[in-house]
Amino acid sequence: MGRKDKNKEDFTEEQEVRDENAATEDAVEEKAEPTIEEKYNALNDKYLRLYSDFDNFRKRSIKEKADIIGSASSSVLKDMLPILDDFDRAIENNAKSEDVDGLKEGFKLIHHKLDSTLKSKGLELAPAKGEVFDPEIHEAITNIPAPTEDLKGKVVDVIEKGYNLKGKPLRFAKVVVGQ
């Protein structure tokens, strides 16, 4: 073979390589530009995955919230059990005992223990008697004529005490208001 034939073969090989590269590039370009349907399917798939993730997150959050609430109340109940035991002992002793003063003292001690336990959990007595009536913190049961002029519009009597838990109303006081 002569030099011309060799150059011709090299040229032919180079042309074949170029043609293969061009065909590969065309295939890549065809794949690089997805059709509208492919784009729609891809976006729809993303949407469904995102929706499922969010739904799972929402369900998990609800479950975690319920667990937190349950464990918080278990702490309070655990602290109340010794007081329940004290009441059981007091009732048992009440059946046998003739000492009225001793029974009164025992119930006062149990009440004090209950009160201090609830205060340690953040429970506070909401002030009511003598305060100006406020519908945000009081619930008026009835109005009566004010015994004195300075008690008009104020709480005259408390039917049921109100309580706050860490500064927020837990139960509103049921009160009688002077008119």
UniProtKB/TrEMBL annotation:
GO biological process: protein folding
Biased composition (Basic and acidic residues): 1-10
One GO cellular component term: cytoplasm
Organism: Putridiphycobacter roseus
Localization of this protein: Cytoplasm
One Gene Ontology molecular-function label: protein homodimerization activity
Family annotation (CDD domains): GrpE
Biological role stated in the UniProt entry: Participates actively in the response to hyperosmotic and heat shock by preventing the aggregation of stress-denatured proteins, in association with DnaK and GrpE. It is the nucleotide exchange factor for DnaK and may function as a thermosensor. Unfolded proteins bind initially to DnaJ; upon interaction with the DnaJ-bound protein, DnaK hydrolyzes its bound ATP, resulting in the formation of a stable complex. GrpE releases ADP from DnaK; ATP binding to DnaK triggers the release of the substrate protein, thus completing the reaction cycle.
Name this protein carries in UniProt: Protein GrpE
PROSITE patterns for the chain: GRPE
Domain of life: Bacteria
SUPFAM superfamilies reported in the protein's UniProt record: Coiled-coil domain of nucleotide exchange factor GrpE, Head domain of nucleotide exchange factor GrpE
Subunit structure, as described in the record: Homodimer.
Keyword vocabulary terms for this entry: Chaperone, Cytoplasm, Stress response
Pfam families (alphabetical): GrpE (PF01025)
Biased amino acid composition, Acidic residues: 11-28
Family of this protein: Belongs to the GrpE family.
Region (Disordered): 1-36
